[in-house]
Amino acid sequence: MPKSHGTRRSPDTGRRRTRVPPPREAPDAHGGGSGPNGPYDRRDPYGADATPDFRPPKKRWLRRALTSNVTIMIVAIVAIGAAVTLVDIDRFVKDDTKPPKMAAAGLSANDMLAKLTSAAEIDPVAADAIAAAKKRAYEEHQRELERLKEKAKREAKARAKLKAQQERERLAKTNPSAKQNKAYGKKMNALKGWDRCWPSLLTLWIHESGWNERAENPSSGAYGIPQSLPGNKMASAGADWRTSSPTQIAWGLGYIKARYDDPCGAWSFWQSHNWY
Questions:
Q1: Average of per-residue pLDDT across 109-118
Q2: Range scoring the smallest mean pLDDT among 27-31, 79-83, 170-174, 214-218
Q3: Which of 31, 84, 208, 272 is a plausible cystine mate for 227, CB 3.0–4.6 Å?
Q4: What is the pLDDT of residues 59-73, one digit of tens each?
Q5: Rounded CA gap, 138 and 63, in Å?
Q6: What is the mean pLDDT of residues 186-203?
Q7: CA 27 from chain center: how many Å?
Q8: Beta-strand (E) ranges in the chain?
Q9: Tally of CB atoms within 10 A around 124
Q10: In contact, 266 and 200? CB cutoff 8 Å
């Protein structure tokens, strides 16, 4: 039967005896003491043969954890990530309301001179080609402007012609008839004291215009019942000379008086010359 380690039987009682560690002496002023194996050591308070039951202080564990390579690496990674995050945040919260700095704001005279001297030189032939292209572009632009001006003039002339045509058509619907114009002429001729010359005036203006206040000679431009040449001469009798029969008749009677004394003399001259 193998011997038991750590226990012995008492020879007189036959009972097992438990090994009791030697008593500890009180630590001296330096925290040490003595034991069976020498001075008292905190790491082995019960001697070499005692069952170890000692845990390191918490501060020592904390120091080991803080100085661990893994801990240092983790702290470094966290610090780098925080720095990158701060840079990105600064970029996103950057104040865009401030005007950007001009690129040349801080250039000195030497820097500007350096830029001038470092700029590529333009070949004279290339410069002439550029100038010729500019000239062609300018001349083409001027031709385009002239073309647009001519087009605008043609369109304006066409609009004016159309407007005049529409005005003639409108007035044609409201124009007095030749019979009405003759009635105006007969009364105004009588007011002049020329009753006996009414037949002469009636025939004269039948030949000239048919008593149409808008009659116009296409070759000479004579206009109106008395065929005034030019037509705007009748403006002295009224601003409505283009459309007013009484205004035209008044001007025509004044012309006849100044040149032929009365309608009888005007008709006699017309018969000899086909104009008066």
A1: 73
A2: 27-31
A3: 208
A4: 666 666 666 777 777
A5: 85
A6: 95
A7: 93
A8: 7-9, 16-18, 34-35, 38-39
A9: 8
A10: yes
Mean pLDDT of the residues in the chain? 76
CA 149 to CA 152: how far, in whole Å?
A: 5
| Dihedral (CA of 201, 202, 208, 214) sign | positive
Other CB atoms within 10 Å distance of the CB of residue 215: 18
- Amino acid (one-letter) located at 225: I
Give the CA count within 13 Å in the CB-facing half-sphere of 1.
1
Q: Which two tokens stand for residue 217?
A: 């000679």
Which tokens in the block code for residue 212? 């149409």
The structure tokens listed for 15 are: 């009972």
**CB atoms < 10 A from the CB of 204, how many?**
25
With contact defined as beta carbons under 8 Å apart, do 229 and 221 qualify?
yes
Q: Which amino acid is at 229?
A: L
Residue 85 has pLDDT above 80, yes or no: no
Which amino acid type is present at position 119? A
CA distance 125 to 55: 94
Q: What is the pTM of this model?
A: 0.40
- Look-up of token digits 């005034």: 228
Residue recorded with tokens 């409505």: 240
Q: Which residues pair with 50 in a beta bridge?
A: none
